[in-house]
Amino acid sequence: MTRCDLTKHHLEHLAGYAGSRPVLVGNDAWRQRQSDVSGEALAAAWLMREHLDPMPPDVRELLRALIERAEQDWHLPDAGMWEARDAPRHYVSSKVQCWTALDRAVRFGPDLGSKADVARWAAVRDEVRRAVLRRGWSDRLAAFTAAFDTDELDASVLVMPLVGFLSASDPRMRSTIRMIEERLSHNGLLRRWEGDPAGFVICSFWLVSCLALAGERDRAGQLFERLADGSMTWASSRSRSTRPAGKPWVTFLRRSRTSVSSTPRVTSPTWTLGVMTCRRHRIGSSRPSGRAVGRGTTSDGERGGAVSPRDVLGLTAFTCRSVWSESGGCRRISRWRWLLR
What we know:
The chain is mainly alpha-helical. Helices cover 46% and strands 5% of the residues. The protein has twelve helices and eight strands. Strands 1-2 form a two-stranded antiparallel ribbon. The chain has a two-stranded antiparallel sheet with strand order 3-4.
């Protein structure tokens, strides 16, 4: 097997598109502990459960390994989903994703084989939840924070309602959403934290989802439209954008527009606005089934199309596969493609 050099380094012999030096390859984050990964994988597997029935033995083995890692490591500090290069911390979003891994493990139950210990997983899941609610909340900010026992805001906690950890209508979550929107908004986007030099597209679409789940459908729809209209001309993360002379598109310098910023354009409307359309028109059932009834104008004259729960799950699972197969290094690429192919 060919070994991949994952260390971050410059390719000096390449000029990059439109002279967008430096050209970088690799990512030193492959050395880090990132405890959120198990939850993301288990959540994707749960979304794709119809395609894992019966569950192949190799997939069952991989999922159990990820569950065990979440069970063992949830109390340890890590680098967080933003791959922080400073000292590891007890990031709230990482703990939430460990909870997600254990929660989906409990849901899978016997499907994970004779070695599945649902009672133990449920107990650890509840322990993680208690720790997050106790140490991840700041009375001073009236919000959930970036890490345990701090007063720092971080947009990553917006995943809490999206994975089912806490309802978006819960007073604590509503207050968190409001604080993040007020203090992290930057030129039409949300920054990841205070002092982040630029907005981060995925955080902005998380806000869309949270607003919709909290019942603020009009605001969610308006924000989504603004983001969808502008997202092709916004750079992700620290990227800078420029328009080459005579060319009608925007070139992103230093970092191309990645799937982590493109994916929420699909997942936000399908998971939130799409799900609400299903409910409004009583389409589908609690179990994913059926087909989309088409696009265009709905029966009540609104823009868009009625979306079945199967379409919601299918689109989200597909985009999850795209994100994980394009990030995290060669080892992670092969594992996610193997699991989610």
